[in-house]
TrEMBL record:
Residue spans crossing the bilayer: 620-639
Protein topology in the membrane: Single-pass type I membrane protein
Boundaries of every Cadherin domain copy: 85-165, 166-274, 275-388, 389-493, 493-615
Name by which UniProt lists this protein: Cadherin 7
Source organism superkingdom: Eukaryota
Function as written in the Swiss-Prot or TrEMBL entry: Cadherins are calcium-dependent cell adhesion proteins.
A GO term from the CC aspect: adherens junction
MF term (GO), any: cadherin binding
UniProt subcellular location: Cell junction, Adherens junction; Cell membrane
Keyword Metal-binding part of the UniProt annotation: yes
GO process terms (BP): adherens junction organization; calcium-dependent cell-cell adhesion via plasma membrane cell adhesion molecules; cell migration; cell morphogenesis; cell-cell adhesion mediated by cadherin; cell-cell junction assembly; homophilic cell adhesion via plasma membrane adhesion molecules; morphogenesis of an epithelium
Amino acid sequence: MRWCGSGSVWRAGALLALLLPLWELGCWGLISASGASGTQNQAQHTAGGPWELLRRHKRSWVWNQFFVLEEYTGEEPLYVGKLHSDVDKGDGKVKYVLSGEGSTSIFTIDENTGDIHATKRLDREEQAYYTLQAQAVDRLTNIPVEPRSEFVVKVQDINDNEPKFLDGPYMAGVPEMSALGTTVVQVAATDADDPTYGNSARVVYSIISGQPYFSVDPKTGVVRTALPNMDREVKDQYILVIQAKDMVGQMGGLSGTTSVTVTLTDVNDNPPRFSRKNYQYMVLESLPVASVVARVKALDNDIGPNAEMEYRIMEDGPGVFNITTDEDTQEGVIILQKPLDFETKNSFNLRIEATNRNIDPAFVHLGSFSDTTTVKVTVEDVNEPPVFFTQLSKMVVSEDARVGISIGRVSAHDPESSNSAIRYSIDRNTDLERFFNVDALSGVISTAKPLDREVNSVHNLTILAMESHDPTQVGKGFAVITVLDINDNPPVFAIEYETLLCENAAPGQVIQTISAVDKDEPPSGHRFYFALPPSVAGNSNFTLRDNKDNTASIVTKRGGFRRREQVLYRLPVLIVDSGSPALSSTNTLSVSVCDCDSDGVAQSCGAVAYTLPAGLSTGALVAILGCIITLLVMVLLIVSMRRRKKEPLILEEERDVRENIVRYDDEGGGEEDTEAFDMVALRNLNVIRDPKVRRDVTPDTPTFFPYPRSSSSLPVYKTLPDNVVFREFIWDRLKDADVDPSAPPYDSLQTYAFEGNGSVAESLSSLESLSTDSEQNYDYLSNWGPRFKKLADLYGDGKSVFS
């Protein structure tokens, strides 16, 4: 089979010389399939040159490369090449089959002639070559007549891609004042065309915009400075346009551009400069210390750390003024360090120097990186308060000083030229108890009350001094008065001692060690002396031993102490201090006798319970018990009788008998008020409980209507009219009250303002009935017993069974 390429026309000059030696082998070379075996056999017996070796390995299929020009824009399919087999005799029995990459979508083959065409436009940048397989088969049986072989269709490049800067646009910086040729940045452009074929991918660089300040290397793309000493303060940013062109920059080449922004970074090449050589400021002499007096600033065209300043005062200011740098604004802040006094000095001329904090040695030759200016500060006079000659006065006074004695003197003056008179006073917030006075004119401080060092040993007074002509001007001074101690407090026991003495204590035993305290504070310290008063010095129980160390020991003189004989001993102790004059006090030490165990630990103290010498007889104990029981029985009987005693149910005639009217805010609603009162309870009257008759007592008042004993005699309310039902119900309740001694002995009248329209029982109010022309008969009240006698007299016809 032969392979015939389609490029013999447009590549004839270059390829023809290479293809001529192979022409006898076919278009690219041919070996028939039928002669393959004979050739191999011949190679086994024949030794020849290179042609013989080539014939030994050649096959019927010899593949080669086809070249297809990319970006073909013709209307007809592009001819690629021709495929032909030696087996094909031209009789149409052989069919050519194409497979592989793009065999159906891009490439087609004429099965009769073997011509291969490309049906689509190819792009080498997408795919540079395609690998295909070719085979000749029998048209009728589809049986391969030659083995499958593989060939490559390579896409031939054309210059259809411009260079591109993949990392652009670029940002770069270079220090200002840099030397000529300083590297700034390197740019790089890529071309997607085939770098192995022609000049399509060979790029050169050039600068379109940015001259004459910068240049670019045509081959490497390195951007450099083209002028020396470029000044950031003149122009700090440049925008360059760099071009990359393929075809080595020749005519017809494609190009691409990018921008490079070059920023000149700052260097310290500018010294600070004050805008003025003289500044003037005015301040009040009353300006507080640490206040800001003025602000000055030296200008520096540099930025950042290169513009940071340090300020210092060179003349006439140190000590009174100080200057610091405001880190935010780089200003020099002048601060007052000492109070100003117009009368002493009314102006200051400050010479201030500003220096760069970070100086670059490379630019020292440009000159000094500092500048100076003069600041004149004028002090204005103000009306100042009086000033004490001594701000803090220290004085001492004895605590026994008499009232009115002078302690010391304070003095103040008016700092103004007017020298106004001064008046003095004490700030009473510092002397609430008014122990001291000050003379308003002279400033002499004296005592106003007796002093006690033990209460307050130091007094801190604030003395006020004010001008006579202007009381608003007040100066303050301070006086510290220390109260000196005298021996005016006797020594006493250090604590309240509880001394325990065992009954088995031996003579000479120390039972207590005592000490003393004294509120006074002598300069040489305390020294106490202990002794027993002469009145008890000769007692036979205890003695005292002074230990010479401000303590003393209480020692027993004898043994055999007994609680039954004496429970508590009181021992007076005399304590004397070492003051001048010496003071003493007598303190009493209580000694309790206790029962102790073998280790001397107290078990019980205090009085002992005495027992009778002889026990009581059994008869005496029984008699005492019987008396006690008899008394208890009598008390119970008295209580029981008091409970059984009752008050008469009917009040005496001569006593004031009144009705007890109870008013309720919640009036009844009658039968129509179905929520306030359940009428069913009144109508269901057959459910009547047994009368609650007291079983333990007999009623004092006789019952005129004996209560029925059997339930068979109970009236049946269901069969009675409504008005009779209520009347019978009330009668039954009346009988219950007659036999119940715990019922209240007063009439109870309930008044209802509204009874409800259409009530069957009509109004129940007796007062309302009385105020109307009611014809109701109340004679039945006379039959209700003594309790209703008063009602019967009021509402009846005047006749009563009791009259």
